[in-house]
Amino acid sequence: GFMTRHERKIFDDLKSPHLKYWVPFVWFGNLASKARKEGRIRDSVDLQTLMNEMNKYRSWCSLLFGYDWVGIPLVYTQVVTLAVYTFFFACLIGRQFLDTDQGYQGHDLDIYIPIFTLLQFFFYAGWLKV
């Protein structure tokens, strides 16, 4: 409903390797300049205000396009990977059961298979890979 059929055909026929969000802004700028020449916009200050607002909106659209274009930096993936492995190591140490009544010499770590910690690690590592 924002474009006529003729405008839609021109828009669809335009070949561009990128998104075509900028085309309506060019059309708007041309129509606003034409309206100023025809006297529909009485003052150049009004035209400038109109064009400034349109440029502000276009810059927001290009910023949004930039966020879509650029992927998540590799550093974020590395930080999350480091956090998952550090968490797993801390869980292996922190979830050990030491019974001081048993008389362990030097309070060494118990050796057992931490099933739930392993399941939690596999879940987090799997989630990380996704």
From TrEMBL:
Membrane topology term: Multi-pass membrane protein
Organism: Halcyon senegalensis
Subcellular location: Cell membrane; Membrane
Gene Ontology MF annotations: chloride channel activity
InterPro entries linked: Bestrophin, Bestrophin-like
The protein's role, per its UniProt record: Forms chloride channels.
Catalytic activity field: chloride(in) = chloride(out)
Name under which the protein is recorded: Bestrophin homolog
Residues spanning the membrane: 82-98, 110-127
GO cellular component entries: chloride channel complex; plasma membrane
Short name of any one Pfam family annotated for the protein: Bestrophin
Annotated gene: Best3_0
Keywords: Cell membrane, Chloride, Chloride channel, Ion channel, Ion transport, Membrane, Transmembrane, Transmembrane helix, Transport
